[in-house]
């Protein structure tokens, strides 16, 4: 089956690799234009574009898909020339206008990293971890005019461990989802897939801003733990110390026996940190956590105990 792959970031590369290795013909790739990165602000191609170029696949990089733009008009012309039977999509990052949805025979097929209708939107992996979900997965569905509302074509499930960061879970789902996407293309080509409507109550996972990653120390320790893991590595969970932003890596929940031994006669309020020779403990709305690594302003991520030794002997500080 002739397909055009639409995707941009690293997690989409796995799916493109699997599709290139499959029996389907990837006739072109649709990805976001080169973006400026680094201190020099030089232009860099998307990870998907880099892989496509290595395989000699045509790359389409319109700034907009709207029909009244030059890029949009040129894209429509090229799509009709290429005649794709389907356009699989993985984190493409550009709005697909309604008039384009029926161009391929089998439509635009999105790979979404959740069990729809759970966690529709831009950040399903982060939302699942933050919510304390024990299970998630990936779904292929036919894109329609709604937000992740189209008919389901395939599903694969995966457990969420108590230590998973967003990066851990997304990496695992990227591989499981890539296989699912190939299977979905196989099924569409063979006519063996029966699309089904989404069932159940929908939940939503909005795009995450840096401000959303701030730790709320008044929340229970388990919620603080999940919040930090959900925002690791990006945008990175953070807290304030003397009005300066400090980034936090995943931390440890402190069992009652440990807190009793290390914090005898110490009652920690939310955000209050107690420093010992070997550890930094922080109070939450319910329970205590132990910091592992943190990143002060202008410095690299470091061991929390090493950071604490640079505080001039302070036994307590307060995060907010």
TrEMBL record:
Q: Which reaction does it catalyse?
A: L-methionyl-tRNA(fMet) + (6R)-10-formyltetrahydrofolate = N-formyl-L-methionyl-tRNA(fMet) + (6S)-5,6,7,8-tetrahydrofolate + H(+)
Q: Which GO terms describe its molecular function?
A: methionyl-tRNA formyltransferase activity
Q: Identify the keywords attached in UniProt to this record, alphabetized.
A: Protein biosynthesis, Transferase
* Highest taxon listed in the record's lineage: Bacteria
* SUPFAM superfamilies tied to this protein: FMT C-terminal domain-like, Formyltransferase
Where is it found, in Gene Ontology cellular component terms?
cytosol
Q: Which residues form the Formyl transferase C-terminal domain?
A: 207-311
Q: Please report the stretch or stretches of sequence annotated as the Formyl transferase N-terminal domain.
A: 1-184
Q: Which function does this protein serve?
A: Attaches a formyl group to the free amino group of methionyl-tRNA(fMet). The formyl group appears to play a dual role in the initiator identity of N-formylmethionyl-tRNA by promoting its recognition by IF2 and preventing the misappropriation of this tRNA by the elongation apparatus.
| HAMAP family xref list | Formyl_trans
The record, for NCBIfam families, names: fmt
Q: Give the similarity note.
A: Belongs to the Fmt family.
Q: What is this protein called?
A: Methionyl-tRNA formyltransferase
According to its UniProt entry, this protein's organism is Corynebacterium accolens
């Amino acid at each position: 089956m002739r397909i055009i792959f639409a995707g941009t970031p690293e997690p989409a590369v796995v799916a493109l690799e699997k599709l290139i290795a499959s029996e389907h013909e990837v006739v072109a790739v649709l990805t976001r234009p080169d973006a400026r990165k680094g201190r020099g602000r030089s232009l860099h191609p998307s990870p998907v574009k880099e892989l496509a170029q290595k395989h000699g696949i045509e790359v389409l990089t319109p700034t907009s898909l709207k029909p009244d733009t030059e890029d949009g008009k040129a894209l429509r012309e090229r799509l009709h020339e290429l005649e794709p039977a389907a356009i699989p999509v993985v984190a493409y990052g550009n709005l697909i206008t309604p008039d384009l949805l029926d161009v391929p025979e089998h439509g635009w097929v999105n790979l979404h990293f959740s069990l729809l209708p759970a966690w529709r939107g831009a950040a399903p992996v982060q939302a699942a971890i933050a919510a304390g979900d024990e299970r998630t997965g990936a779904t292929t569905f036919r894109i329609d005019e709604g937000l992740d509302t189209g008919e389901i074509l395939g599903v694969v499930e995966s457990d969420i461990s108590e230590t998973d960061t967003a990066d851990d879970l997304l990496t695992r789902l990227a591989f499981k989802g890539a296989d699912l996407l190939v299977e979905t293309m196989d099924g569409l080509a063979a006519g063996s897939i029966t699309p089904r409507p989404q069932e159940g109550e929908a939940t939503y996972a909005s795009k995450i801003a840096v401000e959303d990653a701030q730790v709320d120390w008044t929340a229970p320790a388990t919620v603080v733990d999940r919040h930090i893991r959900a925002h690791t590595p990006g945008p990175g969970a953070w807290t304030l110390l003397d009005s300066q932003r400090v980034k936090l890596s995943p931390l440890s929940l402190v069992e009652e026996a440990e807190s009793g031994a290390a914090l005898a006669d110490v009652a920690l309020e939310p955000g209050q940190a107690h420093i010992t020779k070997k550890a930094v403990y922080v109070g939450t709305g319910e329970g205590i956590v132990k910091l592992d690594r943190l990143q002060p302003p202008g410095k690299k991520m470091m061991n929390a105990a090493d950071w604490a030794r640079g505080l001039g002997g302070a036994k307590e500080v307060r995060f907010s």
